[in-house]
Design brief:
five-stranded parallel beta sheet; Aldehyde Dehydrogenase, Chain A, domain 2; homodimer; alpha/beta; Aldehyde Dehydrogenase, Chain A, domain 1
Amino acid sequence: MTDWFSQHRPLLDKAIDACARRYSWSGWPESPSTKVHGEEKPAAGRAAFEAMLGNDFSLGQPGVSDWVGEEVSPYTGKPLGIRYEAPAPEALFGAIAAGRKDWAAASPQQRMGVCLEILQRCGEQLFANAHATMHTSGQSYVMAFAGSGANALDRGLEALAYAHKAMSDVPETASWERSFGGDGAACLDKRYRLVPRGVSVVICCATFPLWNTYPALCASLATGNPVILKPHPAATLPVAMVAKVCRAVLEEVGFDPNLVTMVADTRAAPAALALVEHPDTAIIDFTGSPRFGSYLEQNCPGKQVYTETAGCNSVVLESTDDLAATARAIAQSLCQASAQMCTSVQNIHLPAAGVKVAGERVPLAQVQAAICEAVDGWLADPRRAATLCGTLFDPSVTDNIARYRELAGDRILRDSAPLHYAEFPEARTASPLVIAATESDRELYRQEVFGPVSFLIANSSAEACLADATANARDCGAITSHVYSVDESFIEAAVEAYHAVGASVAVNLHGMPINFAAAYSDFHVTGLNPAGNACLADLAFVTSRFRIVQSKFMRS
Amino acid sequence: MTDWFSQHRPLLDKAIDACARRYSWSGWPESPSTKVHGEEKPAAGRAAFEAMLGNDFSLGQPGVSDWVGEEVSPYTGKPLGIRYEAPAPEALFGAIAAGRKDWAAASPQQRMGVCLEILQRCGEQLFANAHATMHTSGQSYVMAFAGSGANALDRGLEALAYAHKAMSDVPETASWERSFGGDGAACLDKRYRLVPRGVSVVICCATFPLWNTYPALCASLATGNPVILKPHPAATLPVAMVAKVCRAVLEEVGFDPNLVTMVADTRAAPAALALVEHPDTAIIDFTGSPRFGSYLEQNCPGKQVYTETAGCNSVVLESTDDLAATARAIAQSLCQASAQMCTSVQNIHLPAAGVKVAGERVPLAQVQAAICEAVDGWLADPRRAATLCGTLFDPSVTDNIARYRELAGDRILRDSAPLHYAEFPEARTASPLVIAATESDRELYRQEVFGPVSFLIANSSAEACLADATANARDCGAITSHVYSVDESFIEAAVEAYHAVGASVAVNLHGMPINFAAAYSDFHVTGLNPAGNACLADLAFVTSRFRIVQSKFMRS
């Protein structure tokens, strides 16, 4: 068998080191620039994407009774015309069972080698994946290349680093010797075997289809579990491309390709519940709505459930030395990927009496204006706006904006409007809708409003800002939280307050996209508030995906 | 603060090494012999135990509305007359909340130090604990000293070794630097903080009250969670003695003693459900009946549940070179602690055509007789019988024997009878009841029969023995499984068959107590069959008892 483990060992070792010291590192290129890649590769990737349009995407899976596909490009408004396999659950689980034993019996190194090779090959189709992601999730080309490429692959590698650590913690053999009373020494040879839990179902989301898929896939597969990928009907292609790579790699080294399968479905006939409820399913990874995530957390006893859902991410702006820079940092989060990221901020808490700027109190209205102007600043250049905002992945996001515009009435600080992209005149776009709010609007902002809708919330004081923001994190979830302050004691209190409700917090981030979550460095999702029950990734993300059985033999 | 972490570091390091290489080691003495300890310590321990009889056992806990106690010595038949605190849940949880923050804020090293000191001090009361365990759980003095002393403490230390590994995997700080586009480098200082999950409820069993209590207590407390101990009404004293040590150690270094509490209850008014259902409870460790264990596994969504219940542990005897030795090994398991151990075997599967012994087939009846004679051999010397068998912890065990004697009718191969202990003429005892069975008696042996009741099951072939035993492990659970065979291919098939149903297996154990589970070496319970959902201990036993929150600060 090809020794992929040895071949990719340096990459794995680097990832393990990065996880231990948590510095900035990426195993893949983040820029799609032709300066880095030349002209040929980007063009070939685009051509590969275009060649898939209008065709059936065959994975050669068993039990395929139906083909489905309802993806529509948010850039062109046109259906992709691709159909995917919708295998019948019973036939699928039956077929999966056939290959389970061999995969379970493979050594951790063999399985790690296969997973590392899968990531490598996915890394070779980043250009095609970028186009596939653009025209399903609606991301901009740059975001689709980096965020859904390198950054997502890094998260898969990060999960592999943890899986390797957890599996390596169990030795393969031991020699054990002791005496009991006068019977002489008993000498035992012991063997320890890692045993996978069962079928692992990975439910992917629409807007970042691979971001949590790589870590879940890698964590489960490396520890011996077959994986069923269940993509969102709006963003199936990027997942199908990964499934195809997995199946090819598995087959190439003589494992059953059905160890990784994909079940496409439609909005009208969702397949997820049948998959997670199947008795063979032991592990569920879910990224998506808080409603379904919470249902899975509550209703799958005996199964290992990992969720990342959503929260109402907050900013508390108490004071700053540079209001323009702070406004720019916040505004970028309101724009980036049209605020469809799990790390996008939604609720910006401001003291009603204004914000201290370089020692002087700047009135609320002026701060509100600064943030809205900063949004306009990001959007001034249409090319930059297109790269920053991308599109709205689904018409429901447009509807959200319309609904909140109506609810906001005369409290709109900055209205949403379509953005115009020269290359894609039909793109579904919207600039940020910014709404003025007070604590009496709690029912509006105490939930995730998906898309570019945000609230500048005037609380009675900086302390009230913090109290409101942290109560919302506790009750409604938070994946990211930001504090801007030049007051050390306020910062300290803010960090403690966010931590007390199980939320991580970033302080005074400027001059970088504040939505950025760094693989190997940021522990993404705490698992301590309603935005998810797990961290992707840490040791806990992998240790329960396998168990240990042992055999002991008396030495004769 | 006393630097217990540094002081006990060598012990911890030794435990970590033992877990990694899994050799035989114990951190505490296993023999109660006066040759090791002198005359004074054993006598002082006995005196300490006797001084507690007939008195209220005060832990000084808050919210104590009631005192309860219904322990009766299985050796004397007399009530111990000790009453324990039964705090009202609401008052208790309220009091616990007060100390949580400080404990969570303590460094992992501080918490590890406290836990190590707790184990050390419990190690200083092993003689008193031995008497307390004898007169509640009914164990013999030797078993109560070793199995409920050193061996149990080792399991606590083992859990601490894993907790230390898991917590050490998360660095405290990191420096992160990268550039985004043309904005220059963003430099972040990051801090990672371990956050406990919540209150940890540990439900202890009657027959080995500390065996799983130390690991659960240590794993939860070291990772920052307050612990409520809920002992069995029949065996409260050993747990109360541990709780007292914990509270004293915590208080001594300025932590709230209510970080470890104990809730005594009665059979008529059990307290467990109210404790596990309280919203502050995040972690549940349970040792006890499959019925309640399974209830907790199914009905505590969102809470971390670790269970060890019971199964029907099996022996498959295919062939042996020394029938007498094999019979002696099996018979010892039927006698030891009156088969009230989680590792006691119950179902001995024999090929109906007989067992190959040194190449010759010995008829079934002769094998049955050899096992029964071996039981008699172990019991011939009354002193040895007392040390080996101890007593029946509860009258229900006597009832079990009576019930199965009636069900067995004329299939009794060896009848149960009282054992006579010179020192304790009133002791509740019973020698093993051994019943001949075939597969038509499946409803009898496909469940745990608690106490010294076993079945010599004649299956149609060695392969049928294995098929029956492994199906029972899969459906009804197994904590230990044994195979005796001199046929390498049968051994290999047996190991695979047991592993396939999530059961560990021991092969050809002779000349040692086959019930013995070695801390640091045996992964106790696989978590893959109905006998429990967790391993005590491995990394998975600790990693989900805490989460990680982070803060990041832009470097100015």
